[in-house]
Amino acid sequence: MEVKTICCIGAGYVGGPTMAVIAEKCPHIKVTVVDLNEKRIAAWNDENLDNIPVYEPGLAAVVGAARGRNLFFSTEVDKAIDEADMIFISVNTPTKTYGVGKGMAADLKYIELCARQIARVAKTDKIVVEKSTLPVRTASAIKDILDHTGNGVNFQILSNPEFLAEGTAVADLHNPDRVLIGGDTTPEGQKAIQALADIYANWVSKDRILTTNVWSSELSKLTANAFLAQRVSSINAMSELCEKTGADVNEVAKAIGMDSRIGPKFLKSSVGFGGSCFQKDILNLVYIAKSYGLNEVADYWEQVIIMNDHQKRRFAKNIISTLYNTVSGKKITFLGWAFKKDTNDTRESAAIYVADDLLSEQAHIAVYDPKVEEEQVYADLNYLETRSEQENKSGVAVHTNPYEACKDSHAIAVLTEWDEFKTYDWQKIYDSMLKPAFVFDGRNLLDKNQLEKIGFVYQSIGS
Ligand code: NAD
Ligand code: UDX
């Protein structure tokens, strides 16, 4: 079967870039990305490509080349479902905030709504592709809904998890380590797998397109994120030991990373991992393990989250204790709010939690991030419900100029590893600050020797 029309439900950080690249690489396929969020769709359609809702290096050019040709963004969900041969579900699957599994399980209500909508609208056979990250065995629930409430049409369900990382989404999509497609072992299932593999084969070499059964594919996504996050928590655990012993975590990371069995990537010690995926997916994994009575398995993975929470908290604690045990009324400047560089995404960013701890100690926080909007900073803090919106507003100032943000502050905390921070005139910043002028580098980004020569008291992670 040759796919001519694709619909993707969910125009977020995954749906938008993924479909833009499919449209770019497959001009013969019409790709429509739909979302209920009208503002988001309007932004994807904005004439000025600087205003598309997801910031990713290279994305504006890809969208610009395909949009209006074979890439469309729309709020007409039913119409796009009806027209499509293949439907990707790329909606959010956040941690549940209510009921059974609250704080742990993935909330699948948006997935179920999509399945019911597809069942209601579809009049011709469809391949439904799970692009969202889902608990293992979700495909069987989707199939149940489609088969029992549909119009008698045939559905094939595939799992095709997305492995892109934000900040490098376009490069990851152009050149993926692998594409994973899980499907039924029946002949119809294999045909559906082939139809999706044929799409990727337009730009991905065949040896990188891996096919498995549905359950392996679903579980591989949770496993990959758990392993990646575990590496960060492992090196962060060592960072605290380095600080006590005179070892330097960068040197330790280099030394172990040269062992080809360990490898050098993902060993950067930091103020803690953030992002919309790692915590959510590990909590989900922990919940699934518990639901099968596998308590040791659950505890093992939960430790990755416990370590990460500790790393964020101890960063804030260290700022307070170094500033003579009080930050009350002191101005502390945050360089960076996004959860990593080259993205405007702030979900679960360590900066939010560090700010929350410092605000509880009555610090005044000045934030500068090259890509994060002021309203997002307040929304992130308000979401925690630690204090009133008014209190967050009066405790935090968001700046558009980094030098203004740093002026008259007691300390600077680097929360995101934006490259531009390295290029600042640090002498000028030092001159404008209160003395002693402190830098707490949560990303081990800046040049310690240079800063100390200027006169800063510089503290990094893990040395
Ligand atoms: P997102 O919140 O940025 O986007 C999801 C979009 O789906 C939202 O715009 C929302 O309005 C829309 N939506 C929800 N229900 C809908 C419905 N019924 N009909 C139409 N639109 C609907 O989320 P995201 O970051 O793109 O993540 C999507 C999925 O991909 C999640 O399962 C996530 O775990 C997974 N994932 C994310 C990343 C990442 O880097 N962000 C990477 C790999 C996998
Ligand atoms: C992650 C996975 O990498 C990706 O494959 C999956 O599809 C989605 O989740 P993402 O969260 O976008 O991607 O970014 P990632 O590069 O994995 O970084 C996650 C967090 O870990 C960031 O806060 C980052 O700063 C932190 N990190 C990463 C470290 O602190 N040290 C490292 O060595 C690597």
Automatic annotation (TrEMBL):
UniProt-annotated binding residues for substrate: 162-166, 221-225, 261, 268-274, 339-340, 443
Keywords of this entry: NAD, Oxidoreductase
Domain UDP-glucose/GDP-mannose dehydrogenase C-terminal intervals: 333-448
An annotated GO BP: UDP-glucuronate biosynthetic process
EC assignment: 1.1.1.22
A GO molecular-function descriptor: NAD binding
Enzyme class: oxidoreductase
Record-annotated active site: 277 (nucleophile)
Record's catalysed reaction(s): UDP-alpha-D-glucose + 2 NAD(+) + H2O = UDP-alpha-D-glucuronate + 2 NADH + 3 H(+)
Top-rank lineage group of the source organism: Bacteria
UniProt key word NAD: yes
Pfam families membership: UDPG_MGDP_dh, UDPG_MGDP_dh_C, UDPG_MGDP_dh_N
Binding site for NAD(+): 10-15, 35, 40, 91-95, 132-133, 166, 277-280, 347
InterPro entries referenced in this protein's UniProt entry, alphabetically: 6-PGluconate_DH-like_C_sf, NAD(P)-bd_dom_sf, UDP-Glc/GDP-Man, UDP-Glc/GDP-Man_DH_C, UDP-Glc/GDP-Man_DH_C_sf, UDP-Glc/GDP-Man_DH_dimer, UDP-Glc/GDP-Man_DH_N, UDPglc_DH_euk
UniProt KW Methyltransferase keyword: no
Pathway the protein contributes to: Nucleotide-sugar biosynthesis; UDP-alpha-D-glucuronate biosynthesis; UDP-alpha-D-glucuronate from UDP-alpha-D-glucose: step 1/1
Function noted in UniProt: Catalyzes the conversion of UDP-glucose into UDP-glucuronate, one of the precursors of teichuronic acid.
PANTHER family xref list: UDP-GLUCOSE 6-DEHYDROGENASE, UDP-GLUCOSE DEHYDROGENASE/UDP-MANNAC DEHYDROGENASE
Family assignment from sequence similarity: Belongs to the UDP-glucose/GDP-mannose dehydrogenase family.
NCBIfam families: NDP-sugDHase
Protein name, per record: UDP-glucose 6-dehydrogenase
